[in-house]
Design brief:
single chain, mainly alpha, 13 helices, about 80% helix, elongated
């Protein structure tokens, strides 16, 4: 008989009876070993932040930088104060709108369930994105305001009322709409921001209303808006596990 025939005969003569208990024990030990090895490789939070930074698409930050640079370049050529106020208000709203696609891209691409299976929770993922985006935006806004104040002779009070206030309101609208208990999408948030920009234009074009609001009132308004923004961000981090794309 040829060797292949002997092998077939030997194979047919052997009967393996599986032991379910041994199989279960092998699976359990394999899982334990796998988890032990994975625990040795868990990222620190700083490594996690670095990973999130690499995942963020930098084109939105580049667009924000380009927007502020164009605003800084256009302002000196404006001779009408109302036109200057309009451009600052619109640019402030657009500056915030540009962060929407990146912060809520997991809802756009329906990847929240996948993110929820990772070691770091959705709350930590959202916190990392907000921290990184907020840090970059603060740096960009600080550079713009300082350069505008020193090179364009704009008062900080003007930048405060005409740029920072509408920007803070726009950010509050974004977080309030996208992180509400109702299923709003990015388009709704953008439309609401555009509607706010139109309302702001009507306010600054009405000289009686604009001059009637004193600087202390501006401080109160931006304080209320900032408080709501902090609350909206807190609600985002506290309730982000409820924002599933599949109900």
């Amino acid at each position: 008989m040829d060797p292949e025939g002997k092998l077939r005969e030997y194979k047919n003569s052997i009967k393996i009876i599986p032991n379910e208990q041994k199989i279960t024990e092998t699976v359990r030990k394999s899982i334990q070993v796998y988890c032990y090895v994975e625990q040795e490789r868990i990222l620190t939070y700083w490594e996690f932040l670095w990973t999130q930074l690499r995942l963020i698409r930098k084109r939105w930050w580049l667009l924000q930088m380009l927007l502020l640079f164009l605003l800084w370049a256009v302002l000196p050529s404006l001779q009408i104060e109302q036109l200057e106020q309009r451009i600052l208000g619109v640019a402030a709203s657009l500056f915030i709108i540009l962060i929407i696609p990146e912060l809520w891209k997991n809802q756009t691409y329906q990847s929240m369930e996948i993110e929820a299976t990772s070691y770091y929770s959705l709350r930590q993922i959202y916190a990392a994105r907000i921290l990184l985006s907020g840090s970059v935006d603060i740096v960009l806004i600080t550079i713009f305001c300082m350069s505008a104040a020193f090179t364009l002779d704009l008062l900080f009070s003007q930048l405060f009322m005409q740029f920072l206030f509408p920007m803070t309101v726009t950010a509050a609208i974004c977080f309030g709409i996208l992180c509400s208990k109702y299923p709003f999408n990015e388009t709704t948030a953008i439309m609401m921001c555009i509607a706010w920009s139109a309302i702001w234009l009507l306010v600054i074009l009405n000289e009686k209303i604009y001059t009637a609001i004193t600087f202390p009132l501006w401080l109160i308004f931006i304080g209320i808006t900032f408080a709501f923004l902090v609350y909206a961000i807190y609600r985002t981090l506290h309730c982000c596990n409820h924002y599933w794309e599949v109900k």
